[in-house]
Amino acid sequence: DDYLLLTDIQGLEDHHGEMDFKVAGTRDGITAVQLDIKPAGIPLQVLLDALEPALQARLQLLDLFEETIEAPRSEMKDYAPRYGTVLIPTELVRVLIGLNGTHKRELERKSGARLSVNADTGEVHVFAPNKQSFQEATDLIDICGREEIAVGSRQVVEVLSLKDFGAVVQLHTEEMGLLHISELSDNRQEKMEDILQVGQHIEVQCIGRDLRGNVKLSRKALIPTVSPQSNYQ
């Protein structure tokens, strides 16, 4: 029963006292509490007694804050960090993430933002260092969420990298697709470098998706098949 409550926003009471009780909130109520104690426990009444002086201190601080700014700014500075959520169809989450997360990492590299994807709800949480980064990230996500590559559709793609087994290309939806070496032409190819170059633009056709949902592309599907003509009249 013998105790004294001190109200402060410094660190001395944490060093000399037995309890460090932090109370955060607004004029309407408490939003968060946090407690550090040194003894085995604190009587509930001590905590209850601490809430009233905490309220008075909070109101005094809010009065000082409002002398400088009465309400949050309606528009943040362009250089201020941004956070927001973009919702896309759940069936297109695999498009956004890409093979082993490659497409998601590419979007992060281009925009400078960080993405956290909830595959169950289609929510994409965007953490950006500034306004431009946030806008670029949300635009790229929006492109992925609006359109899915249809099987049989044609488009011009850019070759991003060459592998022994094929080429990784970028579609107009910002999604990445795989052009397997067997889908280059009817002729057997030994090396991708003999046919394609990084940065080259080629026309391909979507021929389906693999078990992971990644786009499968073909170049030879667009090459007309020439039927051998008979030598007999």
TrEMBL record:
Pfam families per record: KH_1, S1
PANTHER family from the entry? POLYRIBONUCLEOTIDE NUCLEOTIDYLTRANSFERASE, POLYRIBONUCLEOTIDE NUCLEOTIDYLTRANSFERASE 2, MITOCHONDRIAL
Q: Which organism is it from?
A: Cymbomonas tetramitiformis
S1 motif domain span: 147-220
Which lineage? Eukaryota, Viridiplantae, Chlorophyta, Pyramimonadophyceae, Pyramimonadales
This one is known as S1 motif domain-containing protein
Molecular function terms from GO:
3'-5'-RNA exonuclease activity; polyribonucleotide nucleotidyltransferase activity; RNA binding
Q: Which GO terms describe its cellular component?
A: chloroplast stroma; cytosol; mitochondrion
Q: Which InterPro entries does the entry mention?
A: ExoRNase_PH_dom2_sf, KH_dom, KH_dom_type_1, KH_dom_type_1_sf, NA-bd_OB-fold, PNPase, PNPase/RNase_PH_dom_sf, S1_domain
Tell me the GO BP annotations in alphabetical order: mitochondrial mRNA catabolic process; mitochondrial RNA 3'-end processing
| Protein keywords | RNA-binding
